[in-house]
Amino acid sequence: MGAVKKASLLSCKNLVTIEMSLVSHFFRTQDLMSNSEEMRRKLESMEAELDNAAASMVNKVASQQSTSFLKPLAESFEKLGTVAKVGAIAVGLILGLAILSTVLKIVTSAIIVAVLLFAGYLGYKVFLADD
User: Which whole-number Å values give the CA distances from 49 to 20, 37, 60, 63, 82, in the listed order?
Assistant: First the structure.
């Protein structure tokens, strides 16, 4: 009986050891999971910060480029006299209207060509196509 009792005590001790190792493994896994969730949250916050920083840099560069083009032009315009300012505005208006007129003529020509092509296609279908 003593040997059986000793063997059962050893097996109980082994079971307790295995159970304790499983429990410690479980808690380590839980710690790793919580650490991984914490790391994931930190990574997401860092990505958000980088996105915000990148967007602000793009906005700064874009505004600097547009400002860098218009600023010298505005400074030159401010240095002009009153008569020269009126002349510059008149020249700008004439150039703007000429460009607008050219664009409208191109659009009108494209529409006319499209209508003529459609009319030609209809004429072909009605008079020449074998049905």
Answer: 43, 18, 16, 21, 50
Structure tokens at 14: 């082994």
Give the mean model confidence (pLDDT) for residues 37-43: 78
Residues 85 and 75 in one domain: no
Residues 10 and 72 both lie in one domain: yes
Q: What tokens were used for 45?
A: 């916050």
Instruction: Quote the domain boundaries for residue 129.
Output: 81-131
pLDDT at 131 over 70: no
Amino acid at 111: I
Q: Compute the distance between CA of residue 3 and CA of residue 11 in angstroms, rounded to an integer.
A: 12
75, HSE (Cβ side, Cα atoms, 13 Å): 6
What pLDDT, on the 0 to 100 scale, is given for residue 74?
Answer: 86
- Tell me how far apart the alpha carbons of residues 77 and 73 are, in angstroms, rounded to a whole number: 6
